[in-house]
Amino acid sequence: MQINGERFLKDLHDLRQIGAAGVGKGVVRPAYSEADVAARRWLAGRMREAGLRVEMDPMGNLFGLAEGKSILIGSHSDSQPEGGWLDGALGVVAALEVARAAAEAGGPAVSVVSFQDEEGRFGVTTGSAVWSGHLSQSDADALTDHRGVALGEARKVLAEDVTGPVDAAQFTGFMELHIEQGPTLDTAGETIGVVSDIVGIRDMNITFAGQQNHAGTTPMHLRKDAFQAVAAFTTELQNRFANVVTPATVWTMGHVTLHPNASSIVPGRAVFSMQWRDGDADRLGRMEAIIRDLAAEIAAARGLEVSFGGMLGLEPVAMDARLRAALEAAAAQVAPDRWRIMPSGALHDATNVSRLMPVAMLFVPSIGGISHAFEEDTAEHDLVAGVDVLARAVAGLHDS
Ligand code: HGY
Ligand code: MN
Ligand code: MN
Question: What's the CA gap between 261 and 366, in Å, rounded?
Answer without folding.
Answer: 36
